[in-house]
Hints:
Number of domains: 3
Strand content: 25-35%
Radius of gyration: 24 Å
Number of strands: 25
Largest sheet: 8 strands, mixed
CATH architecture of the largest domain: 3-Layer(aba) Sandwich
Strand order of the largest sheet: 1-2-4-3-7-12-8-9
Amino acid sequence: MRRRAFLASSSLAFAAGIAPAAALVPATPLRDKLKTRAESTDYREASTVADVARLLAELDLRGAPIAHGSIGTTFEGREIPYVVASRPMVRTPAEARALKRPIVCVTATIDGSKVEGKEAILAIVRDLCISTEKTVLEDLVLVVVPILNVDGDERVQPEYLSAPDQNGPARVGTRTNAQDVYLDNDFVLLQAPETRALLSFLLDWQPDVFIDLSSSDGSFHDFGVTYAPSLHPGAYYGGVYVRDQMLPAARKEMHEKFGIETFPCGHFGHDRVLPEPPPPADVANFGWFPRDYRPRIGVNYLGLRGTLAVHVAAYAHDPLERRIFTTRAFVESLLGYCSDNDDEVSAASHTTLRWIGGTVPLRAVLESQPTSVQTVAWENLALDASPDHEAGVPEGFKRTGTYTTGQLPVYDRYTGEDYRVQPKSFVFPAVYASYLEPLLHSHAIFYNVASVSETVVVQEFLIESISDAPPVPANDRRTIVLAGTWREAKLYTTQPGDVLIPGPQPLGPLVSVLMEPESDDGFFAWNVFNDVIGAGALAPILRVMEST
Length: 548
């Protein structure tokens, strides 16, 4: 392992407001001109898409090694900006791959009310670009989408309307986009143009590592950042390496280099998010529990695709300046890991190409035993009847600055449930092709359209019941749960126009999760076939077991 190049300016210097050394022009005027919106307003405001464009234009004027543009347009027609930074500069995915370095994509503001991520990553790009010293830009290609939910980001309103428990700034955007879609729940259905644009962009650039920047609230712990890999147990390639290699290394560096304590992303309470742990007698809720594992969430979805995906969540109850500081420190640690271990990271992200079929879990449950028992501290909130609401705290409470420390069982992963052996292929009769083909194209799943007839051995699925799944937060689409049985094998003759989707393909685990009728987050669950299914009927899908 070679020692990585150090970043342009440390997070400690950033937090103290120290200008980067060896700037291209005198330090103070340059930093003043290149400040982010948060820095220039003493962390009272966050950057708009116009502020992003201004900063990138200023970097252009100084010959920074960046290329930038738009990944697509929002529902209301706004451009979604991106920037690529590398030495030597690259402008296209082909040029990036020719360098044979890890490609790392960082996205922020998928939720328009969560603003620390865009401020942190913009500051990182700036400082890497204006440094005359060697940086990680010599070891990797950094691709950044600083504001994905541009429509939501531009709909600025008082923070208490969008994120009442977040500690500043006073005005932020909305959680959902202009269609009222929560983008981070949209990676299966892809109903929003922003989500489709991001996935198309990622398919072009094929990043080895994907980092999503956000924040979390509700539980009052003492961790500056929480983190998660892809939590779906079918993310054999994109989840395990991140969980067991990347994140422990980043956590160690955060403690040793920055003095910041981090922890797996989650919350107190299982059935509901609690500000502090309940009494141990409440066995079901006593502990630390993980976020959702389903692929509707971007990091979980990309892990199923084989991408090394990481969710980074600042502590929303911290002031904005602190959230930017901790987010930036964690991203710098991840970039440093990718720089130190570039060959290993690239190799790990390509293991999905080895998939030749196997078993895939269609749903998951929390592991029955905790991964560990760890010492955790939580803040003791006090009741507060005053009419002045304290920022970052639920109404009716105030912070005390005092903490209780205790031993908690930590659950940070799920185990697979209802495993299915992949068939040779899934077949959808031609009459249903119009339901399916646009989604297959958007997800870049390999499929064939039959041009001749062929007799194959298949199973068919009898739907026995359909029920409503629990509602999806901040999303107007309800999902359903199908129960039924696969019938005994029979002969079927494919017809021209039938859609055939092989199971053994690089995206094999994702294929099973999306196609199987009993998957809790697939196309059937998301009502793609809602007007042609019913209890007692056959589902419009066949499993090809063998050719005759």
